[in-house]
Each structure stands twice: as C-alpha cells, then as structure tokens.
C-alpha cells in the first residue's frame, strides 16, 4: 500500500522564519525515525538497517510562503491552501510518502496518536497539529493510470542521480524512469517487467525549464536540477505507455533519484484542471 502523510506543525512564537530554515530534509529524516520508534520499534530498526528505505520525505515549508505547496497525489482539491493568517509564519508542513505495506499501516495507525505530540527538528521545538493521510494500493495506481502522452513532471527540490561516484544533474529519461522502476519493483506486489527499461529509450524530453540548485545538508551540499520537464514517448508496445504513466504517478509518493529520503527529488505530476476533477482519492484525517 502506498501512503502520503501530510504533517502540519506549529512552532513557538519565538521560532520564526529568520531562525528556522525551510529545508530540514535531513532533520526530518531523524524526526521521522524517532516517531516510528515510538510506534513500532522493531519496524524502525529494520528500516534503519536496510540499504533501501521504503519512504520519501519532502522539504519542510512554511505555510506563510507564497510559492505553490505540495499537492497530495490524486486529490489536489483537498490540498492545504496557502497561508494568509498572522500566525502562519510559525506553521510548517512536510509530507512523508510510504512505499511499503507494513510501514504504511504503521503510519496510518499511529497518525492519530502523533497529533499533539511535541517534536524537535534539529534544535527547533514544534508540535504536530494535524496529520492527513492519503492511501492507495499499487494495483489501484496501475489500473487507474491514464495513457497520458506527454507527461509533465515538476521537480520541486534538487534532483540528481548517483552514477559511478558522480552526480548526474540532468533529467535523462532513462535515469528518471529507471529510478522509479527500481523502487516500484522493490516494493510493489505487482512488479513491472525488467525489460520495460529497454523501452525508456523511446522517451524523450519534449521541453523543459530547469535550473541547478544546491540542496543543503548539515555538513555538505548536493547539486541537483529543479523545474519542469515534459516527457513524451513513441513506442510500438501498447502496454508501455500505461506503465510509464503509472511510474509517473508513483513519483508523487517515492520521489525521484538520490536522497529522496532526505528531501531531494520531490516530484509532482502537473495535470490540467479538467483532468484533476476525475481523480478519486479522499483525504482521511488522523483524528478519525
């Protein structure tokens, strides 16, 4: 089961935007493990010790910012609106995407208990005010995928790919879709054929508007690209376009590329307003 949990946090009045950065992917990673340990210590240990992690974390963002916020997959109409109140400079939001059945169930069970919990991100004290949970099975994601061509990706945080010890900072189709295929097949009960990777050569960039940015960690920075990329594909295999679209929608849960568990590679699929209206997910409050 796939899950996106949208956390809304509140900071004390003295903790303002001047003292608390809109980053925190690395610190959110640590805070999430602390939360998970309180709910399921064995699962937290198992995930911490395994090489690939079955989740992605977005960047922490202030509700007072004027730039577009992350839209929950398949339910943009329910996404939190931009802040307008005087207290919203002390309110923050981030999203955890789970790719694994056991982890998704653990987050879903614990969400209500986590609301109202005091946490720390780095040295900053915050309180979890609300958690909204969005769930979908892999089967639903696959069967509900439309055969959209081209596909418009928006990379919200620096995205890169690690190859032979170097950082690749271009949205090369084989790297973008290859990253998604590997994570899908690692966690999905309905894996896609490995030969699908051969079809990625049929995907090309139709247009883009990207730039490079540095993503800040505590002791280092990593360069990546951000912005919009429109991919189109020409293949004689009638099934491949459906699988490409499923992988694109999966990106809204998994992120793309390197260090998506620490805020990099946060991705959204841009669709027209009339297409959004057909999406069917419903948000579930943790306080249900």
Automatic annotation (TrEMBL):
- Which residue stretches belong to region Disordered? 66-89
Please provide the record's keywords in A-Z order: Antiviral defense, Endonuclease, Hydrolase, Nuclease
Which InterPro entries does the entry mention? CRISPR-assoc_Cas6-like_N, CRISPR-assoc_Cas6_C, CRISPR-assoc_prot_Cas6, CRISPR-assoc_prot_Cas6_N_sf
Q: Per the database record, which ranges form the CRISPR-associated protein Cas6-like N-terminal domain?
A: 12-132
One Pfam family from the UniProt entry? CRISPR_Cas6
Give the source's domain of life in one word. Bacteria
Domain CRISPR-associated protein Cas6 C-terminal: start-end pairs: 154-267
One GO term under biological process is: defense response to virus
Which GO molecular-function terms appear in the entry? endonuclease activity; hydrolase activity, acting on ester bonds
Question: Bias regions of kind Polar residues — which residues?
Answer: 76-87
Is Hydrolase one of the keywords UniProt gives this record?
Answer: yes
Q: Please name the NCBIfam families in this protein's record.
A: cas_cas6
Name of this protein:
CRISPR-associated endoribonuclease Cas6
Q: Could you tell me which species this protein originates from? A: Heliomicrobium undosum
């Amino acid at each position: 089961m796939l899950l996106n949990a949208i956390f809304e946090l509140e900071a004390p009045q003295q903790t303002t935007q001047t003292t608390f950065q809109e980053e925190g992917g690395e610190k959110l990673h640590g805070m999430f493990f602390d939360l998970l340990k309180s709910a399921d210590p064995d699962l937290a240990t198992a995930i911490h010790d395994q090489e690939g992690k079955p989740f992605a974390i977005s960047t922490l963002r202030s509700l007072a910012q004027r730039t577009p916020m992350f839209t929950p997959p398949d339910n943009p109409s329910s996404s939190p609106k931009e802040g307008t109140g005087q207290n919203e400079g002390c309110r923050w939001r981030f999203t955890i995407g789970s790719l694994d059945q056991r982890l998704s169930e653990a987050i879903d069970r614990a969400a209500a208990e986590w609301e109202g919990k005091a946490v720390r991100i780095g040295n900053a004290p915050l309180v979890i005010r609300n958690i909204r949970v969005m769930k979908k099975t892999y089967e639903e994601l696959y069967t509900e995928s439309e055969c959209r061509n081209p596909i418009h990706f928006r990379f919200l945080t620096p995205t890169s790919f690690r190859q032979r010890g170097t950082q690749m900072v271009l949205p090369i189709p084989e790297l973008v879709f290859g990253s998604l295929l590997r994570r899908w097949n690692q966690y999905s009960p309905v894996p896609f054929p490995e030969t699908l990777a051969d079809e990625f050569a049929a995907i090309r960039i139709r247009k883009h508007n990207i730039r490079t940015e540095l993503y800040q960690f505590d002791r280092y920075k990593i360069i990546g690209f951000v912005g919009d990329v429109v991919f189109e594909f020409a293949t004689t295999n009638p099934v491949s376009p459906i699988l490409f679209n499923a992988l694109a929608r999966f990106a809204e849960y998994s992120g793309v590329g390197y260090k998506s568990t620490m805020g990099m590679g946060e991705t959204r699929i841009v669709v027209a307003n009339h297409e959004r209206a057909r999406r069917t997910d419903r948000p579930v409050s943790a306080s249900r």
